[in-house]
C-alpha cells in the first residue's frame, strides 16, 4: 500500500497470506507485523517475502525446504526475519516452487531454500535453510528473478546470467544441462534492461524495447510461432520494439507496450 503496509488474499493453505491463519481469504487481509516500512514484496508458490525500507528481508508461509530463510523448515503463519539479512537488501524474489533470492545493496545475490537443481547457485544441490552467496555474483547485478526451479540475474552491463534447472533450456546457454552456478545466456551479454522467469522459460526485454525468450515452449510461450523448446534466446514475433515490460508466467507470457497496451 502507499503506507508501505502489506495486504494479501487468496490461497492460504500454508499461511502464505501472513495473517496468522490458514484460512483462504476472498478479500485482502493485513499481513501481521507489516503495517509499514516495506519496500517491496514477492509472492512464490506457497510462501511470500518482503524487503523492508531498512534493507531487511522477511518471509512467511511454506517452509519445507527452508525457503523462509529462518534456519528452520517450520511453516510460519506470520513473517519471520531472514537470518543474516537484517540490512543491506534492495530487492527480493520468491520462486514459484521453494526457493528465494535477494539482491544486496552492493549488487550481490544471495539465495536460500530448495536447491535440488542448483537454483541457489552456490555450486551444490544441497537445500539451504539460510542465505548463501551465489557463486561469481558478489557484485555487478542490478536485478534478479526466481522461476520455478531456476534463477536469473541482470548485470550492470546489461547481460543475463541464469542457473538451476535447465530441462527445457530455460538457462539459455544452448544446452539442457542443469547448472549449479551462473552461466551466460547466449547472445545476451549486453543490451538487456529486464528479465522475467516463468515455470520453465525465461524472457528478456532489450534496451531497444524488443523481447526475446527461451526454454519451454509447449504452449507457445516463447512467442516465436512454434511449440519447439529453445535452449537459446529467440525473438518474439512482432515484438522487436515498443515494449516496456515483460512477464513470464506458468506457461504463457505477456508484454506491456509503450502505448499502454498489453499483448
Features:
mainly beta; four-stranded antiparallel sheet
In a nutshell, what does this entry contain?
The protein is mainly beta and 263 residues long. It contains no helices and 20 strands. A four-stranded antiparallel β-sheet has the order 3-4-5-6, with no helix packed on it.
Termini separation (Å)? 27 Å
Percent range for β-strand residues: 35-45%
Rg of Cα set: 18 Å
- The main sheet orders its strands as 3-4-5-6
- For the residues shown, what is the average pLDDT? 98
Class of secondary structure makeup: mainly beta
Tell how many strands the DSSP assignment holds: 20
Query: Topology as H/E string?
Result: EEEEEEEEEEEEEEEEEEEE
Q: How many strands, what sense, and barrel or not for the largest sheet?
A: 4 strands, antiparallel
Written description of the protein model:
This protein is mainly β. The protein is 0% helix and 43% strand. It has a four-stranded antiparallel β-sheet with strand order 3-4-5-6, with no helix packed on it. A hairpin with a 3-residue loop joins strand 3 (38-43) and strand 4. It is globular. The two termini are 27 Å apart.
Amino acid at each position: 500500500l502507499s503506507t508501505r503496509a502489506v495486504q494479501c488474499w487468496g490461497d492460504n493453505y500454508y499461511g502464505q497470506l501472513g495473517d496468522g491463519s490458514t484460512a483462504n481469504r476472498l478479500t485482502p487481509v493485513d499481513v501481521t507485523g507489516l503495517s509499514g516500512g516495506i519496500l517491496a514484496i514477492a509472492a512464490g508458490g506457497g510462501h511470500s517475502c518482503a524487503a523492508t525500507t531498512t534493507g531487511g528481508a522477511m518471509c512467511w508461509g511454506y517452509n519445507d525446504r527452508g525457503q523462509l530463510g529462518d534456519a528452520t523448515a517450520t511453516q510460519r503463519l506470520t513473517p519471520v526475519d531472514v537470518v543474516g539479512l537484517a540490512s543491506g537488501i534492495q530487492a527480493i524474489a520468491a520462486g514459484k516452487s521453494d526457493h528465494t533470492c535477494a539482491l544486496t545493496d552492493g549488487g550481490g545475490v544471495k539465495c536460500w531454500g530448495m536447491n535440488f537443481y542448483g537454483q541457489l547457485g552456490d555450486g551444490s544441490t544441497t537445500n539451504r535453510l539460510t542465505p548463501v552467496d551465489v557463486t561469481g555474483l558478489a557484485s555487478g547485478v542490478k536485478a534478479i528473478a526466481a522461476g520455478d526451479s531456476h534463477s536469473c540475474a541482470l548485470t550492470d552491463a546489461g547481460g543475463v546470467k541464469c542457473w538451476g534447472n535447465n530441462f527445457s533450456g530455460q538457462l539459455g546457454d544452448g544446452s539442457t544441462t542443469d547448472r549449479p552456478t551462473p552461466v551466460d545466456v547466449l547472445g545476451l551479454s549486453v543490451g538487456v534492461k529486464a528479465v522475467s522467469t516463468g515455470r520453465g522459460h525465461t524472457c528478456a526485454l532489450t534496451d531497444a524495447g524488443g523481447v526475446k525468450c527461451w526454454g519451454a515452449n509447449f504452449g507457445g510461450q516463447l512467442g516465436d510461432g512454434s511449440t519447439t523448446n529453445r535452449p537459446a534466446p529467440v525473438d518474439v514475433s512482432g515484438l522487436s520494439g515498443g515494449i516496456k515490460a515483460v512477464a513470464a508466467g506458468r506457461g504463457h507470457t505477456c508484454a506491456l507496450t509503450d502505448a499502454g497496451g498489453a499483448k
